């Protein structure tokens, strides 16, 4: 299953709703490239008019990821160019990558049988997760997305000791860090609870019976009365 399949629901969990924006500038007859204030533009959401007359989509090209618009012909001098568009904070590729990080991290804590493969839009995961496991992926993916945002902002404020950053801005960073630490603790608690509640169960010899949450066994399989413990070790009870 491609991780991009889960991106729309993950975006809802992140509260990364589609936003609208309008920009205007004066043409000068020379410049045919315009950089929007936002990037991650929603495909086919751009509407452009010059002095109130709509342009055809064939009269310009758009880099939706970077927010660049290239006009076939530079808007004439003293014309008013109006651009309306929609955008999101995170790209689909970034959200799929955050989900991959989530899965790999959870597998590093508890080997429950999920594997990721590919890159970019071809990122995939197998097997298909349960609803509870998917919720954990979304929570941890949110943690990674928000933590990366925090690091970027912190780098912007790195000269705060020289008085470049106000006390309010530093307090805001510290508050966000505290909220993320709390989210991380909750994720670990939910993960442990989920595994302890569901990953222990009887399986038959040969390993043909599926185990909860994608956990697998060797081709020879365990013997009867063996159980799968949270650390991934097969042992007798």
Structure explained in plain terms:
This protein is of the alpha+beta class and 237 residues long. It folds into 2 domains: 3-11 and 92-198, Up-down Bundle (Substrate Binding Domain Of Dnak, Chain:A, Domain 2); 18-87, no CATH class. It has 4 helices and 11 strands; from the N terminus they run αβββββββαββααββ. The chain has helices spanning 7-13, 92-109, 131-156, 167-198; strands at 19-26, 33-35, 47-50, 53-54, 60-63, 68-71, 80-87, 115-117, 124-126, 226-228, 234-236. The strands form 4 sheets. The chain has a 4-stranded antiparallel beta sheet, with no helix packed on it. A 3-stranded antiparallel beta sheet has the order 2-6-5, with no helix packed on it. The chain is elongated and about 70 Å long.
Helices and strands in order, then pairings?
Elements: H1 7-13, E1 19-26, E2 33-35, E3 47-50, E4 53-54, E5 60-63, E6 68-71, E7 80-87, H2 92-109, E8 115-117, E9 124-126, H3 131-156, H4 167-198, E10 226-228, E11 234-236
Antiparallel strand pairs: 1-7, 2-6, 3-4, 3-7, 5-6, 8-9, 10-11
Helix pairs in contact: 2-3, 3-4
